Every structure is written in structure tokens, then in C-alpha cells.
Amino acid sequence: MISEIIGNDRFEVFLKSIDNDLAARAKSKGCAHCNGTLHSATYPRKPRGLSDSADPPSRRHSFCCETCRRRTTPASVRFLGRRVYTGAVVVLVSAMGEGVTNRRIEELRAVLGVHRRTLQRWRNWWRTVFPAIPSWSVARANLMPPPDTAALPASLLERFAGPDSSMRLAQCLRFLVPLFGPYGDRAC
Ligand SMILES: [Zn+2]
């Protein structure tokens, strides 16, 4: 599943279109501090785990307020929270079973630069920090049956029934965005 999705240009274009919608919604709301008009101030940002062929290069949507000059950065499915890795990688890699072979861990390191330590940190984050996010308990109750916390994020991914694995992942990321907020989560 990972090799199918990571580096798949069509999947990246699809995520980008979701981000465009999220950005348009944020812009239409105006500045959260003074209600001023927001102007686009995107910046280049290349999260690890996206293909190098992305053209134009990945940019994170961001806005600058005309009145108070403060920056507004909308939520994003590509840039989940503050992570260096793209949200798709954090979800997919963490969702791999506990019984990941050494060979697979070696592949992850070679292809994505994800080390065993990072993988353990992500898993730990899904099992301990993520379940404590207050909006998660509300969102979890809307999924029937509620995903098993001990098996996150695989148990969450299973709740989405798209036609293929990339659609399911995109639905899962879309679900996660409001829980994370643009910068509201703790980095892992
Ligand atoms: Zn403002």
C-alpha cells in the first residue's frame, strides 16, 4: 500500500485540491484577530515523503492580514500539523503492524529516511498523545464501531471505505485535519 501511494502524482494532485478548498474557506473567513482581509502569502515547503517530481514544487497555503499583518495558515491534509513528514507517510507508516520486519524497516530508512526510532515515536504518539486530544473523543464516537485506541492509526484507517487505498487514506486525512488544527498539535 505504501509504495502504491507515496510518490503517486495523482494522489498528490488530489490532496492538493483538498488543500485548495481548505485554504479558500480560511480566506473567506478573514483574519481571526481583526477580521481584516487576507492576502495570499504562500511559502515553499517540501515535506519529506512526497515525490521529487512535484511541479510546481509543494507550497503551503498561507495568508497575511492586510490590516494587522498577522499570518493565517489554514489546515492542510498534506502538511499535517508541524511534522516534517507528509501526513500520508505518518499515517501509513504508523499503521503498519507491530510485526514489521527488519527488512521493511531498512526499506523505510532507505526510501523515506524514516528511522526505527522515528517509527517508534510516531507509534507512541498515536497510542498516547493523539487519544488525549479532546476533539478526538467526540470524533471517535461518530465512527461506528469506534476505532480501537490501542490499534491506532490502522483501526482508524479501516473505518474509511473508499474504492481504493489512496481514497481511504485521503478520507482519513480529511477526517484528521480538524482534529490537528493548522498548528494545534504536538509535533512528533
Ligand atoms: Zn488582522
Give an overview of the whole structure.
By secondary structure, the chain is mainly alpha-helical. It has one domain. It has 8 helices and 5 strands. The protein has helices at residues 2-5, 9-29, 87-95, 102-112, 116-129, 134-141, 154-157, 165-180; strands at residues 38-40, 43-44, 59-60, 63-65, 71-72. It starts with a helix and ends in an 8-residue tail after the last helix. Bound molecules: zinc ion (ZN).
Q: Biggest β-sheet, characterized?
A: 3 strands, antiparallel
Which ligands appear in the coordinates?
Answer: zinc ion
Strand order, sheet with most strands: 1-4-5
What is the residue-averaged pLDDT? 79
The rounded distance between the terminal residues' Cα atoms is 23 Å
Radius of gyration: 17 Å
Shape call: globular
Total of helices? 8
| Poorly predicted spans | 183-188
Classify the beta-strand content into a percent band. Answer: 5-15%
Structurally, how many domains make up the residues? 1
User: What is the string of SSEs from the N terminus onward?
Assistant: HHEEEEEHHHHHH
Question: Care to count the β-strands?
Answer: 5
Relative helix content: 40-55%
Structural class: mainly alpha
